[in-house]
Each structure stands twice: as structure tokens, then as C-alpha cells.
Amino acid sequence: MVVKGKLKMALVAEKDVDFKKLNLKKKEKAARKKKAQKGGDKDKPESNGKVEEAWVDVEGGAEDSGSDEDEGETETAPMQIDFEGIDESDSDSSAGENDQDNDLEDDEDDEDIPVSDLEDLDDEEKEDMIPHQRLTINNTVALTAALKRIALPTSKLPFSEHQSIMTSAPVVIEDVSDDLNRELAFYAQSLSAAQEGRKLLKAEGVAFTRPTDYFAEMVKADEHMAKIKAKLIDEAASKKASSEARKQRDLKKFGKQVQVAKLQERDKERSKTMEKIKDLKRKRQGADTETTNEADIFDVALEDETAKPSRKDRIGPNKRAKKDEKFGFGGKKRFKKSGDAMSSGDLTGFSSKKMKGVKPSRPGKARRASKK
Amino acid sequence: MSAYKALSKSNGDKQEAPNGIKKNKQRVLILSSRGITYRHRHLLNDLASLLPHSRKDAKLDTKSKLYQLNELAELYNCNNVFFFEARKGKDLYLWMSKAPNGPTVKMHMQNLHTMEELHFTGNCLKGSRPLLSFDASFDKEPHLRVLKELFMHIFGVPKGARKAKPFVDHVMGFTLADGKIWIRNYQISETEPSKVSTSSDGTDAKPKVKKNADGKETEISLVEIGPRFVLTPIVIQEGSFGGPIIYENKEFVSPNQVRSEIRTKKAGRYNQRAEQGVERLAKRGELGLRTNGGRKAKVDELDTGTLFA
Predict the structure, then answer these.
(1) What is the pTM of this model?
(2) Compositional bias (Acidic residues) spans (chain A) (predicted)?
């Protein structure tokens, strides 16, 4: 029995059977044994010594406990016995047979145990575990063979047969999520290919450029192209409209000031012409031609410099303009006084002191006393 | 004569022309599985319109018995199969195969945009032969070289294709970036160089001046046509829809996994919050701050209750 156990251990070491499974099984068995003992089976303790080493034998003993848990065990048992049979019968088995064994072992391994179930294992047991990982398959030999089978002899064929061009240097794209630069790299790659391809095709005498009078079915039908065109026009129109609207908004902001300035200018002009007319009238009367100089007649701006500032030209608070600004003069009156983002953000008029109200100052003690 | 025809027909891929040079002869069977969305269908139509050497077939009924495609390809005299497999009505997988005896490539298709939804102004002749532009990184690894060869066979229109048109007016770009293959399709537009060199419209066109054969200079610029898509190679099989797997992309994460991770992350947020609540209760109980449950606070000697009891 002991010999068998040693043999088994050697085998196990050779095949590196996963210990966790064995351990789990052992634990299960121990639990079952306890059960059996509680049941009052006195025969069991004799075989206990053997149980630790040769677990296959125990199963025979354990089976007569007759519990349902055994079913899973009995299914696997014959297979394991088979292993032993094979390995013991010819201990110096050939490599081919070993391979077979390993295959069987793999089959067993396929029913993986989730890692979460193994957390309660000891540390030393955990060391033996190998977490399952997807293997990289990259069979270079098979790949090259497959390539060789299907490859076109591009070096022997004329270029016009395959029309494929490799870039001289690999295209490097630093950040694939940077749309603009990525597309630019693709574009540059294709452009260089187009140029090189044209050269090669021209050299081989193959028609490259489509003549303008060659009409044929296109990939995109006419209605599709019309749709694209409509979309482009639509886009341009909306862009233009939005810019126009923005301009209008800006104008509206300054419109008031512009209007006021214009009116003032007009007023000034009117008064100036009136003055000139008056002067002319006086001249006609021939009363004082000397007072007006020749320049005035010829409308020279000299007068503006010399003339003393009139009432209208006076710089100072323009009451009318202010009032116009306040109450409105021309244009829409609606929503003029309504607040907007600008006005509500304006905190110049805000004062916490004012908000609290002005407290009347407390009179002195004597005065207070006298009031009483 | 008929014997020669029969011979040449059976020998699909490369045909021995009378002068001894092998000819590039390709035919592609294009079809999809059931359960593709309208976008997948439109993309398939776009690609079929770009490939005059293709034969479109009805949707394949089965998703498990893909080897049936080999028989279909034989039926239609095709030596390439281009198969869209849709899963869950949202994920699209692209199979490309050399029909009778492989290899087969399975790829995951992402970021697909059909011609219709892209609104690009480019256009090209239906059935003109494209220039194929490959990134140099395609030559680096054997599996990429296999991929390149397959792209060349399927997307390159062979010279003698029946419906092919004579001029070359578009270029297809295959670029490798981030472990994925990005595919773009551009129109080659040649314009007479304008007198003012700065008049180039700066949207997509970068003019390059080149000497023409007859001394005239024409500028080549590209205008994108569409469609656009990105492929992630998953698996390469040795046979056609069968045989051993000779390459597997370890970096590929299936979209199912991505979705489930997002879901568990969302669920995790709630779990974390619930756990925090329980922890907080326990902590407060430990400090004797709860009215019922937990540990009672130690009675202090100086408490008013004990002092004036």
C-alpha cells in the first residue's frame, strides 16, 4: 500500500496534477469519514491510516456508507484507477503514452474551479495554483505557409495587375482619438500612394485619368450627389444666416448711441446752414458785408475754428440725450427696461448698508431722559 | 478550346496565361448572416458597388455551419468569401476567406459609417479599379501579411474583371493603428494647376504639383468617398471556415465583455453605496451614537444624570 503511495507521488510529481483538487477531495473525504464514525461504524478506524496515502482505496470503504454525496466520487473513481493501471503496468512507458495521459489530464482540468471558491485554501496550496489564461496563438510557420499558398507574385506581375502600394515608412499615429491628425495621416498615406501609382501606371501605359466626356454609372447616384449638394448648401446658408444674426445683434447694442450721435450731427448741420443763410441774407441787404469774410461764401471750414462755441456745441450734460436714453426716442419701447444678463450682473447700485435701512441715531442719555 | 476553358476555370486563383505570366483572377462572394441592421446592410451594398468582381448572395441562414459558405462559393465560382456576421443585432464580425482551402480571417468591425450617412463629396466610377495603399507595418508580422494579401485579393479589382471600368479614379487606404486596421476610400481628383497657388480650398484638399507625361502639371488631391470602418483582427484559421487556429489576437476584448463590465461597474456603484451605509451605521453604533442597537455609551461620572441622581 505504501509502495503504491510512493509510486503515485512520483507520478503526480511528474505530471503535476493540480493539488487543489486532491486537497478538496481529501477534505470532503475526511468530512464523510467523520459522518460515518458518528453513525457508529466501528470498522472504519482501521483503514484510517491508509486513507491518507491511498485515497483510491478509501472510496471502496466509503461507498458502503451509502450517502448521496458519493455519486460524484464514483464517477471519477474508475478513471483514476485506470491511470494507475496504465502507469503501474509499464512504469517505463513510452512518450506517446505519456502524451495520452496528459491529454486525459487536460480534460479533467477543463472543469475549472472559480478562483473565488478557492480562497479558503492554505497559502502553500495557493502557490501551486496556476491561474488560467488565454493563450496567445501565433503559429508563424503555418501563417507563412498559408501566405505562400495564396500570395500573388507581386514582384513578377506588372503593377497594373495588382495596383497595391506599400508606404516606405510605417504610418505613425500618436493618438488615435485625435480625429484631425489621424485622418490627416490616412490622407497623406493615400495621397502618396496615388501619386506613386499614377507614375507607375503611366509608365506602363495604362489609362489613369478619366476624360471629362466619359460618362458612366458612378458609385454614388445622381440623387445621392444632389442630396449631398443640398446638404452643403443648407450648411452654408445656415452659417451665413447665423453670422448675419450675430451682426444684427451687435448693431442693436450700439444702435442707440449711433442714432443719438447722428441726430446731434444733423442738428449741428442744420444750425450751421441756418447761420449761413442768415449771413447771406444780411449780405444781400448790403448792410455789413465786411463782417462776413470771403471764406464763408466758399464754404471753407475756417469759420469752425474761429467761431466761438455756440450753445449747441457746448460740452456738458446733454439733457435731451439723457432723457432720450432713459425714456426712449424712436425705435421699439418694448423690453427696454427688462433686465438681462448684463444688468442683473451689474452690482454697482448694490449696497448692503442701504438694504438694511438707515437706523436713526440713538439720542444721548439726557435727551432720552427728558423725553420720558 | 473547351478543355482549355474548363481547365482555366478550375484553376481559380492564378491563371496561367498563354505567355507564361500568372494572372490575378479573383471573384468575391459577398453575403451576410441574418440579423444585420440596416447600417450593416448599407455598408455591404456600398462595398459591393465598389467591387465589380463580386457576387452578392442572399443572407445565410445559419451562423454555426459556416463551412456551407465553401459550397456556396464553389457554386458561384468564387475564390474569395466576404461574410458579415451580425450578433445580437449590434455587433458585426467580418469573415474574409480564400474559398477552397483557406486561410480565413475573422475580424470585428467597429466605427462603421456608410457612404450615405457620411455626406462626402467624393465620387468615383462604379467598378473602376482602385489603387490599394498599405501601411508599411503590414509587412512586419506574418499574420498582418496574410491580412494584407487577403485585402489585396478582395478589395483589389483584378484587371480583367467583367464589369470593371478602364480608369483609376479612387484609392483605398489600409492603415494599421492601435492594433486595428482603418480603412478609407478616397477619390483621386486631378485638377489643372491654377495660376494662383494660394487658391487651394483648405478643407480636405492639399494640392501637390506633379509633372505630367506631356509636360503639363496636374495637381492630385483626394476627396473622401466613404465608407469608413475599422477592423480588429480576432482569429486566423488555416482552412476556409474551418481548420486549426493559427493566430489569435490576445488583445481583442469582445464587445459582450465590454458591455458586461460597464453593467457591473454601474451595479458596483450601488453596492458600494449600500455597503457604505451599513458601515456608517456600524461605526455610529460602535461609538454609542445610536439610540437603539450598537454599544451603549459609557456612563460618565460627571454626567448630570449620575451627579444629581
Answers:
(1) 0.58
(2) 54-74, 98-127, 291-304
